[in-house]
Write a structure and sequence with these properties.
Helix content: under 10%
Structural class: mainly beta
Largest sheet: 8 strands, antiparallel, barrel
CATH class: Mainly Beta
Shape: elongated
Number of helices: 1
Order of helices and strands: EEEEEEHEEEEEE
CATH superfamily: Lipid/polyisoprenoid-binding, YceI-like
Radius of gyration: 18 Å
CATH topology: Lipocalin
């Protein structure tokens, strides 16, 4: 059950797709981080009656990667990674979320990918409400979580000549979401 001691936000907020992003990063070839993101996702935050609930859905096919089409097909639709043909969305639903007075928050929730649901921890920040030029109330949240891709059946690996792994198992998920309060 989502719980907070103070509630600086009230109401229902939905993501502004133009001013929001969702990315992931994973170690590549032991020397750098490969980063990619998704262009089509929705986030909804409901803050009322002393509770905060965060929900989000990502369309896997909207992945934005800079690779040849055959690589994209392997990552997006192949069984080694997202398997979008059988699992077209990734979803998150928060459990307990605690908003602190300093603009930070902590929480937990359930991340579902490839038909597998696992509990994850999230940390982040939120911004106080502001009124935009059109009279709407806006806020923003930024949050991250680190997950092990093997927990969702993404076990693909290729050994490097020295014996190390070509692709890291720890994946950092990061979202920057601008939200608009609903009437």
């Amino acid at each position: 059950m989502p719980v907070t001691t103070s509630l600086p936000l009230q109401g229902v907020f939905v993501s502004d797709p133009v001013h929001s992003s969702f990315q992931f990063a994973v170690t590549h070839m032991q020397v750098g981080r490969y980063r990619a993101g998704f262009d089509d996702f929705e986030v909804r935050v409901t803050a009322e009656a002393g509770t905060v609930q965060l929900e989000g859905t990502i369309e896997v096919e909207s992945i934005s990667i800079k690779n040849p089409p055959q690589f994209r097909e392997h990552v997006v639709n192949g069984p080694d990674f997202f398997d979008a043909t059988n699992h077209p969305t990734i979803s998150f639903r928060s459990g307990a979320v605690t908003l602190e007075g300093d603009g930070t928050f902590t929480g937990d929730g359930t991340l579902t990918m490839r038909g597998v649901s696992k509990d994850v921890a999230v940390v982040g920040t939120y911004q106080p409400l502001v009124e935009d030029p059109y009279g709407a109330q806006r806020t923003a949240v930024e949050f991250s979580s680190t997950v092990d891709r093997r927990d969702w059946g993404m076990d693909w690996q290729m050994p490097l000549p020295g014996g190390a792994d070509a692709l890291g198992y720890q994946v950092v998920l990061t979202a920057h979401v601008e939200l608009v309060q609903q009437a």
